[in-house]
Amino acid sequence: MKKSVALLLSAAMALSLAACGGSKDPAPTGETLTGTDRGYGGDVTVTLTREDDAITACSIEGKDETPEIGGKALAELEKQVVAANGFDIDGVSGATITSTAVKKAVATALGKSFEAPEKPPVTPATPAPIVEIEGGLQLGLAYGAPHGTKSFGEAYAVVKDDVIVAAFIDEFQFLDATLGLAYVPNSDTDFAAGYAEGQALASKRMVADYYSQLMTDHAKATVRIDDNFDAVQNFAVGKTIAEVEAVATGDKAAAVDAVSGATLVDTAGYLDLIVQAAKNAQRTQAVEFTGDSSQLDLKVAYSAAHGTKCFTASAALMAGDTIVLSYIDEFQFVASDAGLDTVPNSDADFAAGYAEGKALASKRMVADYYSQNMAEKAGSTVRIDDNFTAIQNHVNGMTVAEAKALAEKGAEAVDAVSGATLADTAGYVNAIIIAAES
């Protein structure tokens, strides 16, 4: 009798535990493994679930990878790792750096070694072809976001009809202000009030040594940033706008392969920026020139033509000591809530370099707003962009010596330039001279 009662109690307890969830499934036998390696923008961390030597799940975190390239590739790379049961994966075309980082991180997680294949030697940049020119040349500028969200780029292009005969690329990014680099002009005065604490704005060409070393350290780059830019520029020269656009809008990996001497995964983005500059050039005043493109040299410089609250970007297309064409623009911080067309990526990671309530603007991009300020505060009757254009048109065709003579007139220079009303006209002329002599 006691034995029957005991059995009944045991059965009841089992039912009770089952009803209350007391009986649990066996613990999973899988193990969790993690590994980290350096990607394009920061650390890439892989988390693996492995059961009986088989990878059943893979999760990859890479918040600092370029969103539209490396970041976009992460989901596909997760699938490849599971399918390959390890790091022997194909990777994603156009996201080579991120793919390699994932392979290394998986190897680390598995306790194995991974040796990246040696990179093939970089093909030297092809010199820009020589273009015969007889007729009008035009110079244009464009801003864009060819390389992720932490910087913005600029491109100048000179065209003869629809053929690109010269181009120039640069890019701006916020860097640590304590590094002692060559930051943009007025970074040590009023313009810096627009910076977030500890930040300063730099042109990648101006800090090419530093930035190229970062590329080498973080991504094993073998070609300097300025040499990459030069290679992309050379590729565009001699081609029609449509020909360059076809490469720029095609496969991103193919664009890198097409440009001799370039290794940047965002080569297509830089080509597209040149295309936009070339299209803008077609809307500017043409200047007659007879010769060939080997006689021309497109130069760009940054200076402080107008006080301490902004910095000036100027371009000069040189033929010997003659300024064939020129272009002026200027950057100044504005209120971020003013609803203005500020520089690219002002709504993305680049804005982390801004002081609270500030955003960076090109005066040509916000010409309506800035010109209205000029009218209200100084009684100006000529728009800022029309002032810049009047100064350019006056200087075009001058020798450097003639331009210097004009700049030396100081406040009287404005009287010599038809259509200009800016008190700092001489400063802007000097900005073109700085570019011409750079």
Give a written overview of the molecule.
The chain has 438 residues and is of the alpha+beta class. It folds into 2 domains: 31-110, Sufe protein. Chain: A (Alpha-Beta Complex), CATH 3.90.1010.20; 132-436, no CATH class. It has 13 helices and 12 strands. It has helices spanning 2-19, 67-84, 96-110, 208-219, 225-236, 241-248, 252-258, 267-281, 367-378, 384-395, 400-407, 413-416, 425-436; strands at 31-38, 43-51, 54-61, 132-144, 151-160, 163-176, 199-203, 287-292, 296-303, 310-319, 322-335, 358-362. The strands form 3 sheets. It has a 5-stranded antiparallel sheet with strand order 7-6-5-4-8. A 4-stranded antiparallel sheet has the order 9-10-11-12, with helices on one face. Strands 1-2-3 form a 3-stranded antiparallel sheet. Strand 10 and strand 11 form a beta hairpin. Helix 2 packs parallel to helix 3, helix 6 (241-248) packs antiparallel against helix 8 and helix 11 (400-407) runs antiparallel to helix 13 (425-436). It starts with a helix and ends with a helix.
Total of DSSP H or I helical runs spanning 4+ residues? 13
Q: What gap, in angstroms, lies between the N and C termini? A: 107 Å
How many strands appear in the DSSP assignment? 12
In round numbers, the mean pLDDT is 90
Strand order of the largest sheet: 7-6-5-4-8
Strand proportion: 25-35%
Shape assignment = elongated
Instruction: Name the structural class.
Output: alpha+beta
Q: Helix coverage percent of residues? A: 25-40%
Report the uncertain regions. 1-28
